[in-house]
Amino acid sequence: MVDDAADHGPRTLLDKIWDRHRILAREDGQDLLFIDRHFIHDVTAPAFEILRARGLKPHAPARTFGTADHYVPTHSRDMSAVNHPERRTMIEALTRDAGEAGIEMFGLGDPRQGIVHVVGPEQGLSLPGMTIVCADSHTSTHGAFGALAFGIGATEVGHVLATQSLWQRKPQWMRVLIEGRLPEGVTAKDVVLALIANIGVAGAAGHAIEYAGSTIAALSMEGRLTICNMTIEAGGRAGVIAPDETTFAYLQGRPHAPQGADWKRAVAQWRGLHSDPGAVFSREVVLDASAIAPMVTWGTTPEDASPIDGRVPDPAAAATAERREAMGRALAYMGLSPGTALEEVAIDRVFIGSCTNGRIEDLRAAAAVVQGRKVAEGVEAWVVPGSGLVRAQAEAEGLDKVFVRAGFEWRFAGCSMCLSTNGDTVAPGERCASTSNRNFVGRQGPGARTHLMSPAMAAAAAVTGRLSDVRRLMAKG
Ligand SMILES: CC(C)[C@H](C(=O)O)[C@@H](O)C(=O)O
Ligand code: SF4
């Protein structure tokens, strides 16, 4: 590998990871990077065709891990519940191809199965300093451990499977500094929605983001995963947080984390994974955590987000004609009128889950709001844990009972209604309070209207039947 670190000045975390993984540099500015970890899921299945067509086999199966998530049913764990031929084919093809290649697979029926971005961290497969790829845009999630993690396309999957390397152009490096204490009822999800509302869906285009500051330092590992997960919604290539004691405590003892003497050596090395004082960033954005309120989206991109105590904005007040038109279209799709108080908007469905907010702390936060309350009349509310292990943990804590008693459906792990590729959909015209990451037109089903928010806010919406300020419910106890 090329090691030109010696005579450098202060380096960023990205420089450090990049330099350690660069095998070759090409004149056009692309570098060949060694890839430590490759995740595959049921949508990746066709990539194996690329290999077969060229007579190739996966080069490093032990660095590759698979899970079935996008196409799996969430009302049952039985393969016979997949009554859609295309979905069944995708799951079966992945299972077969992974099996033949000697790739470990967390399939349907495996207690560790779940959404790829929940499973990787949970199993200790995503570690500081690694390069991590997956044919999925939300691979940015794994950057929360201080790894360089990003989504790749189908052809690139073939390249990584065959060579365990990938040609990449180094992104620019942007720092998002978040300082101060989060107010009561405000979570990592609100922070990242506030950031995207601030910089826009293309705000980090061409950049990898390093998140830093006292707010990030105080966040749990799960909160950090939520923030890195949504980096892609700001157009960022990757989101990274320097590893610290919180990171090490989360990883210690996980099945694939180093053990014993290896653990000690690894932690000693990981402590060097941070941007050096004086390292230069191409951009910096600063956010004041104490000024952030619980957020909800009202439009059809994650940028269309406002504090819950606000109103549906008026396109007439938009800065540009283009934005005015986009807002007008979004409000028409969402069935909302400018000036309506967000808290007056009635909802039909609630989805608590996804790789953004389907982890145990998310379910605990939602259950704390739901406890002793009932799902509002006419609302259909679901909890879809991010993995089988999250589901089991929640059951061990009795959270499933809190949800079921309140009238929620308690489902099995998968992507489910985040993208609806498994058939879990929101009906046309219905409005869904969702803890997922994208509120695009038709994302949760044709004509479905998505409002993004935190798990606690989604729980508040479930029990009131409207978009609601969770802080008020918390005050009542
Ligand atoms: C299906 C997959 C390729 C896609 C992604 O890239 O993110 C999906 O996970 C999503 O969230 O839209
Ligand atoms: S939960 Fe949603 S965002 Fe995450 S991988 Fe699945 S479909 Fe994509």
From TrEMBL:
Alphabetically sorted, this entry's keywords are: 4Fe-4S, Amino-acid biosynthesis, Branched-chain amino acid biosynthesis, Iron, Iron-sulfur, Leucine biosynthesis, Lyase, Metal-binding
Q: What's the Enzyme Commission number for this chain?
A: 4.2.1.33
Cofactor(s) in the UniProt record: [4Fe-4S] cluster
Q: How is the cofactor bound?
A: Binds 1 [4Fe-4S] cluster per subunit.
Name the Pfam families for this protein.
Aconitase
- Which residue numbers delimit the Aconitase/3-isopropylmalate dehydratase large subunit alpha/beta/alpha domain? 15-465
**Annotated positions binding [4Fe-4S] cluster:** C355, C415, C418
Question: By its UniProt entry, which NCBIfam families does this protein fall under?
Answer: leuC (TIGR00170), PRK05478.1 (NF004016), PRK12466.1 (NF009116)
Annotated protein name in UniProt: 3-isopropylmalate dehydratase large subunit
What organism does this protein naturally occur in?
Answer: Bosea minatitlanensis
